[in-house]
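At your convenience, could you comment on the folded chain following this short note?
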Amino acid sequence: MRYYDAIVIGAGHAGVEAALALSRLGNQTLIVTLSEKSVSHMACNPNVGGTGKGHLVREVDALGGQMGLNADSSLLQIKMLNKNKGAAVWSLRGQTDKDVYHENMLSTLRAAKNLEILEGECEDILVEGGKAVGAVVSGEKIGAKAVVLCTGVYLSSRTITGEEIHEAGPYGFENAKNLSAALLEKGLPLRRFKTGTPARVYADSIDYSVMEKEDGDYDIGCFSFMTEGKLLEQTPCYLTYTNEETHRIIRENIHRAPLYNGTIHGVGPRYCPSIEDKIMRFADKERHQIFIEPEVKDGELMYVQGMSSSLPKDVQEKMYRSVKGLENVRFARYAYAIEYDCIDPLALSPSLEVKAIENLFSAGQFNGSSGYEEAAAQGLMAGINAARKIRSLPPVILGRDEAYIGVLIDDLVTKGTNEPYRMMTARAEYRLSLRQDNADKRLTPLGREIGLVSDERWKKFCDRKAKKEAITEAFKEKVPLAKVAELFRSKGETASVGMTIEEMLKRSFITASDILPFLPESLRDPDLAAECQIDVKYGGYLLKEKAHREEMRKMEEKKLPVDMDYLAMQNLRIEARQKLDKIRPITLGQASRISGVSPADIAVLVTHLVKTNK
């Protein structure tokens, strides 16, 4: 029997991060995929980032993951979302060439040390004495010290377009037929979720002249800390809208929609609904945005963002062609919905290890999340913690005050989810401290400690950190009144005293570019100065947030005994006993976030801990 340190099941966005983390940490790793063509395949929109998601990409990069680098190598366009709002919610979004993204990630896997790729279907997980000891792949038993499930949307999946139903994975790829039953036999709680994707249409059949052109931002950096320069050659996207005719066609054919006639049983994503769901749920809206985006550079196909659907093909043709600019559109691939099996994430510990089976980890859409970025973040953490489990090291568990990744995983394993989970900035209590611009400051030292941050990255990080500290120190230098007054006059304001650069930056009308001339020439870095000014402008709010974080951290530091008998605690409400017994929180802070556990229940837990000296 072949033997590896770790086996990763699935090579989507979660699987590749898990496998690369394991192999880079010195573990002989096998990654299993149904087909190499599906490695990091972008079955839905070929973009990376977005609101909240851009933060995740930056954090994955800061810890030494691959997504940011791979996205930068395939970018067609990049822009900063929410620039009209506060810095906490600024989020990078990049349109990528899906073919280049796939090819570059596959090349990265092939070039990685300690890593092998195997095409085949995982049919079972080998378990002995409550521990995962390997997997069965296309009939072959393969041993391992740890196994990571990253099956995405392939488990017993089926694609649905009207009355057409195919037992298949996304984009017509083969699905995994046997693993669901094997996992159910082992007691893993599975559920049925659904997602979908729009049609792909021919680029030369679109009238772009009647649409709004959407250009990228040329003055911003890319995703990865290691990418130098800016994206100077970009491909435009286009914006159009649905109209009353589009809505009429959908309403008249809603009885043929699998989502409404009972064909689809899985629960779909609330924050990325199909077009028919939008029309029925938001009947008062006169129109919905539709973005026309490229799938590859100079390619023949375009992606119709905002019109995912499972309606029959003839209805799709009518509704798409009712949209301005798409009147003569030709279809290359029709929209479809996909149903698949995934695990109830409450069955996982914060390290992403399956509670019922030691050494079995789980990540990505199999955990009930949606999106490439959420998958990559979980894959990285599952890979790190599987590697640490192999070496009998404690897991790395990021707090909600440390990273969006911490928020993502804590939400899944503590609160669970009844629909595909999507990361949003609103989910983070400390989003002012968890900005995407400071992801490296927050997480690169941890990535270095774990062993995933290279010497090259570490040197660049240390040099950049030193320069930022010098700029922050220079902000304390006082500028003579004459120069301050001159700058203020150019803004239509007046100044009566000299000020430090920091004091000037606290004025809303002063920006980082305004104060560059006052810095020593060696520190006149526009990007670094812009990052440093955020801490100045939001300094008071950051102090308040820090105080709250420190107060909450006290609860996070109060560990709960692993053998706590919650069911025997009569002072707890029945619901709280059941929820605490099921989830088995590791800290008092985690217990406080469980749905169904009230502040009064937490007070009972505290009293019990004091009485029992635990």
Notes: The first strand starts at residue 2 and ends at 9.
